[in-house]
Amino acid sequence: MSRRGRAIGFLLGALAAAAVAAAIADGYSDSVVAGYGRLRPVLVAATALEPGRAIGPLLASEKLEQRRVPVRFVPPDALTDPAEALGLVPAAPVPAGSYLLAGQLRPPRSADPPSPLGGRRRPVEIEVSGAGALAAFGAQPVGSKVDVVVTAEPSGSGSGRTYVAAPGVPLLALGPGAEGAASGISTATLGLTRPQALRLIAAESFARRVTVIPSG
Prior knowledge:
Layout: H1 3-36, E1 39-45, H2 57-63, E2 64-70, E3 89-90, E4 105-106, E5 122-129, E6 145-152, E7 162-176, E8 185-192, H3 194-206, E9 207-214
Antiparallel strand pairs: 1-2, 3-4, 5-8, 6-7, 6-9, 7-8
């Protein structure tokens, strides 16, 4: 047989094999529909999805696949199209090969949630002196506002400078210091801004005294 004849024979054989494969696939699909019911599209995680990472167009194209499975195997809240997941964030890890469910996704959270203290204040613990005087008149000091006064170490022969480092800050909690109540040092939890917190944390190490007094 000539080279051309062999080539034509090979091509006809390949076409016949492709036709047989297509017929088998069609027969398999028909048998699946007959045995398990109609098929519907579902969204599947081709690779694992990390929690907290928003699903954008690139991630969706790389990690999500649309497949057709029998309806009886599909969870009620299974997503059917990648567009349904765009902009959402997995609340927990999604294993590779699993259905992507609406209940697994949530809107992205704000990177900096508002503080319950208002503004940019955050709770910070500082060791202070003079906290016992806050309750001298029978009032409950926790929940009130205090001024935090710093007395610096003297730089020469004179006395150290005393100044208000954080005026009118919320006193959130008050407890004994690390050395106990007898030491006269208390641990105060204050609602501070970041600059105030950095200033007072430095004062704990280098100042002679950090004192709290009633504000105003």
